[in-house]
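Justification of resources, computational component.

The compute hours requested in this renewal are based largely on the per-chain cost of generating structure records like the one below. Each record pairs the submitted sequence with a full structure-token output. That output is archived, and it is also reused by downstream analysis tasks.
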Amino acid sequence: MPIGPVIIFDDDYHMYVLRDRGSAEAWWEMPDEYACGFDALARPLRMTGEPHQVALELSGDEPAEADLRRLVADHYQRFLPGQEPPRASDLSHFVAGLPVEGS
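The structure output for this chain reads:
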């Protein structure tokens, strides 16, 4: 079971941080717009389902922290110029520093 918050990247690699798996599944509409995602432990997620009925699940138990940090940095560079991504070396603090949708 993915641990929230979940960090999702769309097909343009725009980042969305959602409170938990349930809120992500309710919020995300089109599975074909999903590129990749991670839970709070940096474990990769996959999205399955039909439009307006998506499901998120773990695609592996091994964390991909370097990939998550790289994608977050890319998101900030492309979509939030002049802002800095969290710099925490501890993963939990890094994830906690990401802007959650709807907060």
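The mean pLDDT is 94. The beta strands are 6-10, 15-18, 34-38, 44-50, 53-58.
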